[in-house]
Each structure stands twice: as C-alpha cells, then as structure tokens.
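Figure 2 data, in text form.
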Amino acid sequence: MQLTLKNKTILLGVTGSISAYKACDLARLFVKAGACVHVVMTPSAERFVSALTFEALTRNAVLTEASESWSSTLNHIDIGKMCDVFVLAPATANTINKIANGFADNILLQTVLAYTKPLLIAPSANTHMIEDATTLKALNYLEKHHIEIIGSQSKLLACGDVGNGALAEPLEIFYATARALLNDDFWNNREVIVTGGGTREKIDEVRYVSNFSSGKMANSLATALYLKGADVTLITTKGHAEIPSKICTIDIASAKEMKEKVVKSITNALESETLVPNKTRLKPSFPNHKQETSKKPFLFMAAAVADFTPKSPKQGKTKKINIGSKWNIEMKQTDDILKSISELSLIKVGFKAEMDKVNGFSNAKSLIENKNVDGVCYNLLADSSAFGTLDNSIVFITKDETVELGRASKLELSFKILKESQKLEHNNTI
C-alpha cells in the first residue's frame, strides 16, 4: 500500500540503542514515500550505526556533535525549523528521562529542546529500564504534553530477556509519523466506521456463498482515515495485516453479523459524539489550551453484503451421497443494512459496483433517495477480474454533483473520496 509523503520533511533522531539499525529501515521507508529526511544522532548512537550510513540513505548531511555548523543549517536550531515532524526512533530510557526533565547535554537533546512542532518518541530499552517507575513517569508526563509515544513491543530482547522494550516495527513508526504529517482538523478525533469485504453465508459447516470482493478498498479507506486523524473502526470479512495496527478491526463473516456490528458501532459512535479536543504539541512549560468542536460520525459502507443467505444452514458437512445429482438450496433475503440505519444521524457514504453500462450510474445514484445516503462511490466493472486489483476507478455521486475521481491506486482514491466526503457534512446540515 504505497503512501506518498512528497513535499514533507522529517527529522529522525537516533539514540544509543541496539535497535538503532532499525532506524535505517525507517529512514528508507520515509525516503521511498518521497519525504526529505534529515537525521540527528547522539554520540552513543554512532557506536551502533555510522552517520555515513544515514547520509547514504537520505542524501543529506547528518547532524552530530562533530558535524554541527553555524555557517549552514546543520545545527540544532535550524535543522528543526526545516522539518515538519521530529521522530525519535529508537529513544533510550536515558533520553526519555532527560527530555522529560529538560536536559540538553548532547546534540539530539539540544535539538529536541529547541523544537516546537510535532514530536514522536519510539522507546527501546531493557524491560526493567523501560518499566522503571521513573521512566514510566517520564513517558506519562510527555504524553500529557501532547508528545506522541509509539509503544514498544514485548518480545525476546537483544540482551536475552523476554518482555516489553523492543522498538515498535518500523512500518508502525512510519504510519504514526505519516499520521502526524497528514492530520486534518476535519477528520481528527472523528468517529468513522468502514465496512469491507464480501460476506460469507453458510450453507453448512464447510461451505458458504460469497462474492469476489477483496476488501482492499475498505483497507485503503481505513488507512487514509487513520492517517487523517480519525478514530476508525473497520468491520470486515477479509484480511487486514497491511493496515496500521492502531486501527480498531472487527472480523465478521455473515450479513447478519455485519448488520449487528455496524449498528452497535454506530450506536457507540453517536453516544460519543461529544466535544473533542483539537490536539497540538505544546512545550511542557506552556498552558494546555484546547479548542473543542463537535463532530458528526461517518459510515463508509464499502462491504459487498450478500442479498440472499441460505434459509436453513445444515449442521456438520453435507454428504454428496445424501444430496443426489442436484442440490437445490433455498435462500432468503438478508436485511438491507443501509435501509435499516437510514434514519440514524450520521453521514453515510455507500459503494456501488455495477456491470451495467447503460443503467449502472442511475442505479448507483438511486441509493441517495432509496437508502438515504449522502454520497455514493460508483465503480463500473468490466468483469470479475476487476476485483482484488491494486487500483480502481471511482465516480463520487451526491444529490447535486457528480465528480470523476479517475483511475488510481486504492489508497490515492481513498484520499480523494475523503476530500469529497468533507463536503457532505455541510450538505447534511442544510
């Protein structure tokens, strides 16, 4: 799932942890996404990875104690001014405790103290060091002052101990950093539900009726929403290993389960539709001002929900010898989820895949009136091979407007869908 961070500038801070080598993978992810990456290293970090390694990866000079220059921007004041976000990965317990107490006795800490924009910290240390009361107090203090902590993992550590303290996976740090860069006030802290995949309707305990929906569009939408700052719940029948782990996922199978989880998630979202703070990174010594706004929940119904389900699913495995040469399975209609929630006070975006070139568009637009949705993502398919592809083609339809979003990767299309969907809140309140 390729994400672009073009025109973004990232400052990567590396401290003296054995996991410093993973910062190389992180830098590579940032560069691959199109970001400009600068690196600052503590003297201890240089014992594990050389500055030359990061210069080769980023094509930028690395700020160290020895390289700092006041005749250029390679110093602890100017380098921060150039960057949109500062991520420390890995951050040792020593560094964490010093930041919380305002220490500035090395080049990286001086850079942190002078930095005023979003700061993220990914801890990495021995279990006893990271769970020491002093370190936990420091982490709690930093979080209270809107410095994001990217939680460490529990696993076999380099020292041989098993427990909490391993650096978060580089991809998770990448996603957290991208979220800080792409955060949008409209979506920030907004409750959003996304459904995906094709439901599976049981015939017996080993067979089911389904469709070709891959769930990839829903995964991309959930990822885009997360990166924009939304509180996302993904209800899906398909795998989702490639999306950020911070996204709340609910795995289901049938249309009945889909309806139950959708209704429950919407109910929870509507109950929590309260005043929420706009978070900004403030220096610890500043007063904690919060601007509060009320935000209406969204539903993106991208799942391909079965129209019919077997009326009487069989227990166990149905034997061929007991069926005969033909198997007539009686089906019954499933509940229409969008119709069942049509009166609920949230903004709803439906998805409509059609193969009818003549009537497909009108069928898609009819969802606005027939199911009381605010917008429709219409996709004209050629045949079943169109499912599961990496790209897609979407027309975004509202009551008064039709916007061709074109063909693009599903993640790129997702960002376009979100941009168009923002207009729906205004239309919904008219």
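Caption note: The first strand starts at residue 9 and ends at 14.
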